[in-house]
Specification:
By secondary structure, this protein is mainly beta. The protein has one helix at 17-24, and strands at 34-42, 48-52, 55-60, 67-72, 75-80, 86-89, 95-98, 107-112, 118-122, 131-132, 138-139, 153-156. The protein is built from 1 helix and 12 strands, in the order αββββββββββββ. It has one domain: Trefoil (Trefoil (Acidic Fibroblast Growth Factor, subunit A)). The protein starts with 16 loop residues before the first helix and ends in a 30-residue tail after the last strand.
Length: 186
């Protein structure tokens, strides 16, 4: 009888990012889309993203015109709350505002980074990120990388929106007691 050995090799540095990226490439028809109001804080400019019609900047103060995110899975569509224009990236990598956000140019894949910042990668142009300079000017997609501070953002709730900032309400759970039935005289 031949002797068979099976050798199992365990990888120490398993990287699940490839699996996550493959799962988030296609839009998910099952997941519900969620509408959220945020201010996207740019790490480099120290200001918030503004969608001012066709112009995009990261010069907004705290409490200024904020953005509305339409999330489905890890894919995000960003709309200026007051202008109703969507943040999009054209084929040259320029950030522009468009009134119709249904094209894939207006969809971004949200990546939460190790430093707890968020990077927004274009769903159409893989490897191109939303980024801003120190002066709040948009950077072109082909010149951005995930590890650059220019593409790091933080989601913040808008100032003066207390209904969005309600804390979770915890309910106490009590052990269910036996119900005592009233005794009826026979």
């Amino acid at each position: 009888m031949p002797l068979v050995f099976v050798v199992l090799v365990a990888e120490e540095n398993v990287d699940f990012r490839i699996h996550v990226e493959n799962q988030t490439r296609a839009r998910d028809d099952v997941s519900r889309k969620q509408l959220r109001l945020y201010q996207l804080y740019s790490r480099t400019s120290g200001k918030h993203i503004q969608v001012l019609g066709r112009r995009i900047s990261a010069r907004g103060e705290d409490g200024d015109k904020y953005v509305e995110t339409d999330t489905f899975g890890s894919q995000v569509r960003i709309k200026g709350k007051e202008t109703e224009f969507y943040l999009c990236m054209n084929r040259k990598g320029k950030l522009v505002g468009k009134p119709d956000g249904t094209s894939k140019e207006c969809v971004f894949i949200e990546k939460v980074l190790e430093n707890n910042y968020t990077a927004l990668m274009s769903a159409k142009y893989s490897g191109w990120y939303v980024g801003f300079t120190k002066k709040g000017r948009p950077r072109k997609g082909p010149k951005t990388r995930e590890n650059q501070q220019d593409v790091h953002f933080m989601k913040r709730y808008p100032k003066g929106q207390p209904e969005l900032q309600k804390p979770f309400k915890y309910t106490t759970v009590t052990k269910r007691s036996r119900r005592i039935r009233p005794t009826h005289p026979a």
